[in-house]
Structure formats: C-alpha cells, structure tokens
Amino acid sequence: MAKGKRVFVVDGARTPFLKALGSTGKFSAADLAVAAARPVLTRMPFQPEAIDEVIVGCVIPAPNEANIARIIALRLGCGKKVPAFTVQRNCASGLQALASARERIALGYSDLILAGGTEAMSRAPVQWNADMVNWLSGLMRARSPVDRLKAISAFRLKNLKPVFTLLLGLSDPLVKLSMGQTAEIVAHRFGITREQQDEYALQSHERLAAAYDAGHMEDEIEILYDDKGKHYKDDTGMRRGSTMEQLAKLKPVFDRKYGLVTSANSSQITDGAAMLLLASEKAIEKYDLSVLGELVDHEWAGVDPSQMGLGPVHAVAGLLARQKLTMGDLDHMELNEAFAAQVLGCQAAWASDDYAREELGLKSALGSMDPRRLNPDGGAISCGHPVGASGARLVLHLLLALRHRGGGQGVATLCIGGGQGGAMLVRVEGGKS
C-alpha cells in the first residue's frame, strides 16, 4: 500500500474471553462487541455520532445479526448517519477490520473509525442437513391430504442428522482437512515433538497467569455482566497449576493413532470481542486525544491450505522486507497460538535457510523471533481464540504491552484458515525504536 496519512490507535478494550462449555454462551457476538466498545467511547471527549465509520470482523454472526457492524454501531449510539460494514477473513477477520480502517484513514476518507472483531463461537448454528431440508420443502408443497401422506411417509431417520456449522467452518473444503490436521502436517514437516508442543502450551498458561498477577491485563479487559447479574473479569480458559504430566495424559484429537496435537496444545473454542478506536492526526488534534500507538503497515500472504499455519512466515517476511526491518528490530511479536505446533513451525521456518530459499525467495533465513519477545504474556492456547476477534486482540495487546515496556515496535500476526497469513506492524513512542 502506498504511503498515506499516519494512522493511530487512541484507545481500545476487549471482553474476557469465555471458553465454550458445550452449550450456548450468555452473550451474542453483538453483545460482546458492544460491551468492549462502550467503555472506549465513554472515555472519549466526543459523542459516538462523531465517528465516521464502524468496521467489525466476524466469521459466524447469528442469523439475526446480518451486517453485525451496523447493529453494533446503532446499539452504541453512533446514530443512523454513521455507516458500518462487516469483514470476514477467517481467523484474521479482526485484523482485516483494523487493516481496512487503517487504509480508509490513510487515504483520507475518514478520520475516526471504530474497528475490531467479535465472535460467539458457542452460538454457531446447528442446521438441518440437505435431506431434511428437501423433505420439509416437499411437505410444505403438498396440498391434498394424499400428497401430505406421501410426503410424510418419505421421512427417514437420517434426516435428523444435524449439521454442526462450527466443525465445517474449522475444516478446509478443498484439501479436506481440519485445521488441527494441518497443524499435524506442520509438526511432521519440522519434526516438532509432542513434548515440545505440550511445553509450549504450558508456557502459554504460565505467561498469561503471570500477566494477570502483574496487573498487565487491567487496562485491556472490561468486565462483562450477564442478565443474571453474574460478572466475568478473567479469561476462563486460563489454567493455573497445569503440569506436563497432566498434559501428557491427553490423547491426540485430530489423528488419534499417530497424532501429536491435543486439546491442550491447541487454541480454545471461545466467545469474545476486541474493539479499537483509530484516528488521523487531524482528529487527534481536533479532540486533543492521547495516542496509544501507530498502525504503521500491514501485509497479507497466501500459502498451501494444507499447511495454513505457516501463513505468518510469509506475511511477516513481506512486511519486514517492505519496511527494511529484521526480526532483531522487533521488540515484541504477537503470533496467534492457533496450535503450539503452528507457532513452533513458524519459528522453525523463519530459522531455516532451506525454507527461506525455497518458499520465501530469500538468500538466507530471516531468523526466528527471540522466544522471550514472542507472546510474552501467553496467547490463544491459554486465553482462547474467538476467530473474528483474535486479530484485534493481538494488536490491542501488542500496543498495551509495548507501552508497559516503555515503547518500541512490534508485529501482530496470524495464520488463516484456507491458507493465508496476515501481519501488522505497530509502533509505540519510547524504547529503542
């Protein structure tokens, strides 16, 4: 993208991420986004009507949440004149919302945009299968009593077999693999062991718990209240006190005979939202806004869908090349923990001269990210992965973490179902950068 006007994040917040427990969650995707955004707007010196646009990423909005961004905007009091649109790029939908907002401001179309992502994965629809739909259609068309009896007699028990849309959405229709199976392929390609994956998963929980204990999550998470008066203030998927012995007892999920990927070293099915307010320099000056950080650039890349977890390798490589940066120039990286195998696979690919030459067209390896600067506060394995929201959460957490550490620059990046990767470069004043 050609260089345009500078784009800044002035504030943001997210809900606690709530692990799906096998039943419909308390909050719709719109509920979650409103809960994340309302405190942000309350802190602003202007009314919600001053916002130019609302852009939200969401993968599986409910049937009554068509163009969910518009619903969210109206519920937040932005008014009928503020336009809104919804974006979908699978796991990177929240990042796509921020990228779209950044482009709109950089090109001069807008000055204030509320953008982010939301998902209520626990509310993914369970649908009738095609046999049941066709049977119902035939029954509804029947007019005479005889035709109705014929239609009823055509019913078969197989018609009752449900279609779980969440499972379909987490599978690639072209390569016929689930996301977990693609993680198994990445693990096999780079020789990543079960023990390494479990160690990484345990580290994710320990790092997130440490971030909570240090008070680093207080600026990020807004308390949720349900209609029964119950409140939620922490990510419910975090497991304190987990041990390697406990993780080792779990059986593989996606390849039960030979696999290494388990429910514990994978991200969690989760409900949650993250929303950020983006502004131009003009808006910052007009309203005297404080600045959290700058969205500098973003990049997208495509990879083999059967190894979709390697998408960040390519997106980050392209982003750093355009910005003339190296891995060593980054103070922090947030790499979405879809699977431990996928994170470790990206690290191995970045460190590989062969991968650099054969896949990235580089002369030598880009170099892996310093593990101390990679997801230092845990990630989706411990906090969860509400697919439409995760990209926005990564950027928000990256900005806040850089501020806590005195400033600098970092990259937020995700793998994307279907074989893509996305990455965004941010800067926060202070630090070496």
Question: What does this entry show, briefly?
Answer:
Helices cover 36% and strands 19% of the residues. The chain is an alpha+beta fold and 433 residues long.
General description of the model:
- With about 425 residues, the protein is an alpha+beta fold.
- It has a domain of about 170 residues: 3-Layer(aba) Sandwich (Peroxisomal Thiolase, Chain A, domain 1).
- About 35% of the residues lie in helices and about 20% in strands.
- The protein contains 15 helices and 16 strands.
- The strands form four sheets. Strands 1, 2, 3, 4, 5, 12, 13, 14, 15 and 16 form a ten-stranded mixed beta sheet that branches. Strands 6-7 form a two-stranded antiparallel sheet.
- Helix 3 packs across helix 15 and helix 4 runs antiparallel to helix 5.
- The longest helix has 20 residues.
- The chain is globular and about 80 Å long.
- The model has no long low-confidence stretch (mean pLDDT about 95).
Relevant terms:
alpha+beta, 15 helices, ten-stranded mixed beta sheet, 433 residues, Peroxisomal Thiolase, Chain A, domain 1, two-stranded antiparallel sheet
Q: What best-fitting shape do the alpha-carbon axes yield?
A: globular
Which ranges are low-confidence, i.e. pLDDT below 50, for 5 or more consecutive residues? Answer: none
Give the end-to-end Cα distance, rounded to a whole number of Å: 22 Å
Give the strand content: 15-25%
Structural class: alpha+beta
Instruction: Please state the average pLDDT score.
Output: 95
Largest sheet descriptor: 10 strands, mixed
How many DSSP-defined strands? 16
Helix content: 25-40%
CATH class of one domain: Alpha Beta
